[in-house]
Amino acid sequence: MVMAGMGMGSMDSSMKLRSKKQLSQKLKVAQFIAATYVFFAQNPAFAINFIYTPSISIQESYSDNIRLAPEGFEKGAFVTEITPAISITGVNGGRLSANFDYRMQNLFNAGGDGGAQMFHQLNFDSGYIVSRNRLNVNARASYGQQNISNLRGGDNVNNLNARTNVWTVGAAANWTPHFGTFADAQVTIDFGYVGNDSAERLANSTNLNESISIVSGLDFKRVTWNVNFNNSTQFRENEENVHFQNTNATLRTWLDRRFNLFATLGYANNSFEGLDNNTNGFFYTVGAQWKPTWYFDIEAGYGNNWHVSSNLSLSQRTHLSAGYNDRSVGLNTGGAWNVSLNHSAARSTYNFTYTEDTTTVQQLLLEDNPFVVVDVTGNPILGNDGQPIVFNASLPSLSDDVLVRRTANVSATYTTGVSNFQLGGFYEIRDYENRTNDEETVYGINGSWSWNYFQRTSVLLTPSWQHIKRDNTDITGRVDDDRYQFSARITRTIPLRIGRFGGLSTSLEYRFVKQNSSLLLNNYMENRVTLSLSMRF
Predict the structure, then answer these.
(1) Of 234, 288, 243, the residue nearest 269 (C-alpha)
(2) End-to-end Cα, the chain, rounded Å
(3) Would the pTM count as exceeding 0.70?
(4) Model confidence over 327-373: pLDDT tens digits?
(5) Among the listed ranges 6-15, 60-69, 465-474, which one has the minimum average pLDDT value?
(6) Rounded distance between C-alpha atoms, residue 210 and residue 513, angstroms
(7) Which of the listed ranges 222-236, 357-371, 392-406 does the model predict with the highest average pLDDT?
(8) What is the spatial distance between Cα 145 and Cα 164, in angstroms, rounded to a whole number?
(9) What is the predicted pLDDT for the residue at 29?
(10) Contact, 118 vs 109, CB < 8 A?
(11) Using an 8 Å Cβ cutoff, are 148 and 398 in contact?
(12) Are 351 and 342 within 8 A, CB to CB?
């Protein structure tokens, strides 16, 4: 009994210590934002005016399956949400820019538990041009919630205890020195920190990225050259660090204006816990490039890292870029494609991209927007997939794995002035390098129709479907999920003479979500109706 008591005491002490550490990290984020604001806003050298836009929204939602339970175990509940917010935008700052958005989401009876929950969401970014065309710096920070696993798509209203707070903070400097007509350079240093409340799943980490690029200047006519250095280190707490580094130099000899020969020599030095898809060492490529016109070029190189690439501009509005490379040295060895096609017309745009890259969940979180932002009419601003961001389905489950991603995206937009249409599709394969043979395949389609059918009244429809196939998950073997979602919202805006952007908007939204899964407990269906009232001052 004494031994057990000592164990429980040790566990309590450990939890308290971790809680204090997490609170300390969050306070550092707040201190960073406050210090940046004081430095920029209060320093005469950085004169800038700020527009303060406070707001408050009140929502009442009813869900017939608040816990996303399987059939027969559904439970309905009303959830009340009161969310004060403030948006601060810097204007007339000249070289200085700054934006700050904060929301305090207060939920009552979230998940049908009868209690009260408070969630914070924050997004901050600022930049300063120290010297035009020479040096600029920026700072950023975010705070929000993210699903620990993408097996279930619940949000804060569902309160499934499967989400965690995630915060990021960062700063970067970009220097572009010019060495007369001899050479031009670009030097970038980027610092970022990612923290979360589930460090046992995702290690808190400090990211340091450095890149140097030097290109020959006008002194070089027949022979041109460039040198590139990229170094990225992720310092993880209580986990193996991740290190990516690539150095290369290219020399080109122009036989005439249209044709040149080139040679590239480089060195790859990468280090992380993973499989055999990474090979360090020297690499070389020797080849030629042909540019017969301004709208077409083709390049091919042979070596232990060889490639073929081409760019074609069919018109001023249509551009195609495609390339294939096969690497024996470096990250993600083997063959890989990169394709980009885009076309724009007077009322429409069409885009297709296919990329292959190596990254980490921590890096993806540094690039992610932490919360839903609404426009002046109260409609949610759509994410990259064209959907309101209920949760970021594009993110993998939180883990310390290094990911090799093969991603295809296609989208089309059309506007009539009164209506805006969007249709998109995506396909992504994720190979987890830290595990033996885990792979995730995600694909789906989505669309949206925004219709301003009457003055100050709009309708938004957003259907989507997504399929996720997981091989060798931590739960059991292979898991397949199909997620169907549809939402319809009508919004009415009433102008009020309160403050600079005073206005009252009310909306009624219906949302349907259904998930069919090969994992029995992961099948669910939810119908949710939300009535919202929001005011900006």
Answers:
(1) 243
(2) 61
(3) yes
(4) 999 988 899 999 999 999 999 999 999 999 999 989 888 876 555 44
(5) 6-15
(6) 43
(7) 222-236
(8) 5
(9) 58
(10) no
(11) yes
(12) yes
d(Cα 421, Cα 418) in Å, to the nearest integer?
10
Q: Residue 526: which residues within 8 A CB-CB, separation 6 or more?
A: 63, 64, 65, 66, 68, 511, 512, 513, 514
Amino acid type, 131: S
pLDDT tens-place string over residues 237-247: 988 899 999 99
Q: At which residue do the structure tokens 């360090």 appear?
A: 280
Rounded to 5°, the CA angle 216-303-406 comes to 90
Asked if residue 105 lies in contact with residue 83, where contact means CB atoms within 8 angstroms, the answer is: yes
Collapsing DSSP to helix, strand or coil, 446 comes out as strand
Q: Which two tokens stand for residue 395?
A: 């993110």
CB-count exposure of residue 4 (10 Å: 0-12, 13-18, 19+): exposed
Among 123, 126, 134, 52, smallest CA distance to 96 is for 126
Q: Which two tokens stand for residue 425?
A: 């599709």
Count, residues in the chain: 537
The SS3 assignment for 75 reads: coil
Burial class (CB in 10 A: 0-12, 13-18, 19+), 94: exposed
Three-state secondary structure string covering 302-354: EECEEEEEEEEEEECCEEEEEEEEEECCECCCEEEEEEEEEEECCCEEEEEEE
